[in-house]
Amino acid sequence: MSTLSTLAALLLVVQTAFTAPTETSVSSVFGSEKVACSIFKQKYPDHTFYPNTAGYTYETQSQYWSARQFSLPACVFVPSSATQVSFAITTLTLTLSKFAIRGGGHMPVPGYNNIDSNGILLSTSNLSTLALSKDQATVSIGPGNRWRNVYAYLQPYGLAVAGGRVGSVGVPGLLLGGGISFYSNQYGFASNNVVKYECVLASGIIIEATARNAYSDLFWALKGGGNSFCIVTRFDLKAFKSPKVWVGMAQYDQSQSANYLDAVYTFGKYGALDSKAAIIPTVVMLPGINTTIYVTAKFYDSETSSPTVFENFTAPNLVSFSDSFALQPLSTYIDSTDVLQPLGLRQEFRVMSSIVSRDAIGLIHDTYTSAVSAKLSGVANLTTTITFQPITKEFIQQGINAGGNPQGVDISKAPYFWMDESWSWTREEDDETILNFADSVTADINKQLQAKGLAGTYLYMNDAGKGQPIFQSYPAKNLERLKEVREKYDPSRIYTNLTPGGWKVLQA
Fold first, then answer.
1. 396, 268: one domain
2. Is the pTM of the predicted complex or chain greater than 0.70?
3. Contacts of 25 (CB under 8 A, 6+ apart)
4. For 285, phi and psi rounded to 5 degrees?
5. Is residue 503 in a domain?
6. What confidence tens digit (pLDDT) does each residue in 3-27 have?
7. Quick one: 136 and 122 in the same domain?
8. Domain extent at residue 417
9. From CA 405, how far away is CA 94, in angstroms rounded?
């Protein structure tokens, strides 16, 4: 039987699965993933991998940041074009097969970008387009790229994009969740810099969405609405001149914690005064050896360094024991920091939000560090961090200027700190301890922030843990609009029910 005949025959299965009261929703059928794998293998044998093959191992393990994401799908399909993605979605829909989609594999929530043997993994590894437009105003980026690839490609042209700050992070996950960039004070969310999305809809149709064409509603939804709408097979981003920047990382010992927190607060409060500047301030704890290090990644988008913008992070206010701040291409810095994100460890995230307040920083820091010291010192090889990401009014205004986005962050209460809590460890037997701690310390800090009127409302998807109410933190009217867009483009709920991973607007 031909592939098309096989797919047509499977329509009978689909018809019996569409039942009231949700006529247009779908669920999987036991064993259907085996049928889909067989179809992929027949049509694209070189792009389909079964267990116990080198391609399968590469796609299901070596491409994931967190070992908790390693899983064993029925097969892996690795399309190399939007047409092949379309074929995959049609096949998966007609067979009612569950599937996961992996971009860079950095999101550590189990099941969000991989799937077990009752489903199929779609890998974007071969969707690796990188192409600069003739006028060098935009760059087309395939979802199989990580940000290190993008910056390296643009570096010979003296160009950059508003992209990720960690080289191993994948392009699609960052952009579909909004994306914080070193350039965000100048250009807003990374997603505010997308000018066109090439997408495969649930119907299998390939379209392009822009701010002004017939798919402008979908274009808006993709700027922070996650994976409920389509599979993006190409992102076209604005490119801009940024041949070299001042960037590097300074480290301080525990004795300087108070001055460090003062400096972070001051930058958070006044950082918008120079939009070329950005920082990533991170408290790094190694509880097993009772060590805490205070780190600041400093960034300045100019070949001329500002003498004042980072003065609170330098002597005599703070004396670093290491500082790599230097003029260099961004791609060089990104490559040098990849070692800080090793593959194969067990990872977990949580996200929090507060207004910029010295009291808020102190409360969060003291509660977190005390709890870690009291409860996690026995976890082997544990590294835990909390990062205070300053979000300025200028950052938010840039998104508004670019036509708005689903996040709808309230600019009237800006600036904010968006805190990323992370844990990295080695032993599976410690999973429950870490997950319980993550829930309890986050709830404790949020309760204290709420009681003191210091809490923010928006929760940043890309730093969140499973179960955190991401879309519930968006304005109600934006969430309703997201649900309407999802219903319009995916009435059968293919990207909701057959793709279980990720935060879903329908479920918010």
1. yes
2. yes
3. 18, 492, 493, 496, 497
4. -115, 135
5. yes
6. 444 444 444 443 343 333 344 478 8
7. no
8. 245-328+345-468
9. 33
